[in-house]
Amino acid sequence: MLINTVQTAPIAGQKAGTSGLRRKTRDFMAPHFLENYVQAILDGIGSADGKTFVIGGDGRYFNPQAIQTILRMAAANGAAKAIVAQNGLLSTPAASNLIRQYKTDGGFILSASHNPGGIDEDFGLKFNMSNGGPATEAITDAIFTRTKEITEYKVLEAQDVDLEQIGTTQLDDMTIEIVDPVADYENLMAELFDFDAIHALFKGGFRMTFDAMHAITGPYAIHILEDVLGAPTGTVINGTPLPDFGGGHPDPNPIWAHELMGIMTGPNAPDFGAASDGDGDRNMIVGRGAYVTPSDSLALLTAHAHLAPGYKGGLAGVARSMPTSTAADRVAKSLGIPAFETPTGWKFFGTLLDAGKATICGEESAGTGSNHVREKDGLWAVLLWLNIIASTGKSVADLMTDHWQRHGRNYYSRHDYEAVDSDIANSLMDDLRSSLPNLTGQSFGDLTVSKADEFAYDDPVDGSHTSGQGIRVMFEGDARVVFRLSGTGTQGATLRVYLEQLETEADQMKKDPQEALSAVIAAADAIAQIRTRTGRDKPDVIT
Ligand code: G1P
Ligand code: ZN
């Protein structure tokens, strides 16, 4: 077949963030945009020659066409083999598993995670390495450098490959293996969790609702929860992946998963509710009338993971991103295991997982996972919760109440100010940075600053240094506020304000989080002058 070498020129805006390159779908569809980036990836990783890649995506608009382009380019660049999920549909954690299980050289994951999909919405592409995790900083930098100097890319002139039939086919010299996206993942879950106990739980009348949000976890959840574990048909709602996710935001939080929240607070609420995002790596956990924050979920899972067969030997350690609440640290302390605090983004957990220093990791942004793959994993978190409920016989609400009584409750919330003018957001952060030396000792209402800094991280495994990871202001009495600009937004800047306050009084555990955090919220505004500078009188999203 004919290999075309197409002349091109660098395209601005191809710097990838914490989760690969995310842009408007129309940008990705523009001439040479996707092709340039794919070529930059293949060059950035050394070359494609003789390599095997996993390819799949979350099914959003442009997923099928982009996969065909990547296949033609991988073949033209000399790749030996591509393992492609049937119809190109693959959740991010399942992709991570395939990359590891088949000992491949990495994978292309097409997704913009929880961002809406459609021709006028978002698209994304990221490259994961042979350990199954997101490309390291060094590789991302090499890829970005290539995007700035690219002059040509290689692509095969060929028909689209039929991705519907499971089996093996050829694209010129490259072998394409089309695999069932769910089977290997299901086997992995069956090794980690006590499927018999969960099956018995459902048989005993336990009811749950899983909201797949018209995204990629639909087929996984229907098969595993309903077919294998015996949950009644209809347990999974919105289970068919759609290119535009049904017009919604496939982001599992109380705002966007309002349908599920309505069910869980309604008169006929099931025992347990859960949701996952566009590409299946995030999760939301909610009991009957009891929403569990991701930070609390991480802490609870850390405390009880040993109840699941895959973790019965205990955990080596737990890791959380810096803005995630310190609830998991308190559990780690009681278990006598190390707790790691990393910058935001799953890739920072990779070295700790590879080195066996941490077993479970989590972020406040609804991501939890373990050393079974190198991505966060939505369904994994749901299954671990189900395993814990089956083993303890307790409801979500009772598990959380018991947890807080034992470890204290870290009231927690995140306030997001979206699409803020980038200059305003940057100068707000710059001014905060320069005010740091004077903050300690200052009082805001009843809160006195005990320490203030900008978070930087020295990776204990590979020694790499990462700076500028968010401004932390700690107050006496175990309260904290963190200011950070998002690295994944596609419009202007998103200012994230993370608020936390520890409560150890047993009779103070049932407050509304916003009320419990009111002093910290007021201090955050006084310190950063958010309202005055952004002209917003309240956050766009509160989670
Ligand atoms: C957000 C989350 C972060 C997560 C990332 C990718 O990044 O805050 O925890 O790792 O999405 O899912 P941010 O937009 O804050 O940079
Ligand atoms: Zn995601």
Q: Ligands bound here?
A: 1-O-phosphono-alpha-D-glucopyranose, zinc ion
The biggest beta sheet is recorded as:
7 strands, mixed
Low-confidence runs? none
How helical, in percent, are the residues?
A: 25-40%
Query: Which class best fits the helix and strand makeup?
Result: alpha/beta
**Number of extended strands:** 27
Number of helices: 18
How far apart lie the N and C ends? 52 Å
Shape: globular
Rg value: 23 Å
What is the average of the pLDDT values? 96
Assembly of the depicted chains: single chain
The proportion of residues in beta strands is 25-35%
Major β-sheet strand ordering: 2-6-5-3-4-9-8
Report on this structure.
The chain is of the alpha/beta class. The mean pLDDT is 96. The longest helix is centred in the C-terminal third of the chain and has 18 residues, at 422-439. The protein starts with a strand and ends with a strand. β25 (479-485) and β26 (493-503) form a beta hairpin. A seven-stranded mixed β-sheet has the order 2-6-5-3-4-9-8, with helices on both faces. A seven-stranded antiparallel β-sheet has the order 20-21-24-25-26-19-27. A five-stranded mixed β-sheet has the order 11-10-12-13-14, with helices on both faces. It is globular and about 70 Å long. Bound molecules: 1-O-phosphono-alpha-D-glucopyranose and zinc ion (ZN). 1-O-phosphono-alpha-D-glucopyranose binds at residues 18-19, 113, 321, 344-346, 363, 365, 367, 486-488, 496.
